[in-house]
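User: My collaborator sent over this chain with a note saying "see what the structure looks like." That's all I know about it. Can you take a look?
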Amino acid sequence: MKFAYFNPLVMAIEDVDAGVFTSIKESVDKAHEKKELNDEGDPNISIRGGQQIQLVPSEFDIDTTHIKNFIEEKCREYIDNVVRVTGVSDLTGYDPHLISAWTIKQKSGDYQALHTHEAHISGNIYIETPEIGINDKESDADIEFRLPYIRNPAHFIFTDHWKFKPSAMKMIIFPSYLPHTVYPWKGDGNRTILAWDVKLMSKTAK
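Assistant: Without extra context I'll predict from the sequence alone. Here is the result:
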């Protein structure tokens, strides 16, 4: 797992194992067959265009145990790294629990408005990504994160955003409170993701 540090933020990028990816993709493809369950019209959802289907909790009969186990395992790795780097040992008393997962399939021109998630840790697994033409903008189809406002002339730090160019079989992990947006693009193909939210729960809670 590769990590990017934006003091005081930690974000992670991971390559998803081919076997795990295949099982997740099968679940995502099955979900998108349920077009009648599309949540895109919900005014509380940030997407503009596309199809969104809830997988956890599931709105139809589908086993998502493999998704839950994989995401929680990667969140434990993420937490372990945060503890190791920051020394915030309190986090060792908590376990990650997947509370929500949904898949979004978008086409050319679709995007996501700036938003945050009501959880502790969030992320995306990229199932398929569109073809970007040589004449398109560099940011087309990117996800952009709005970082806490940092201005530190002594260290020449003037960054308040970070863009990530998605590709299939990649996973990103980030703090849920971090605002982010997804840019549209023009061209062929779909941008399909499995998005998810995790909450940290005390190991001693009954």
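A starting point for your reply to your collaborator: The two ends are 32 Å apart (CA to CA).
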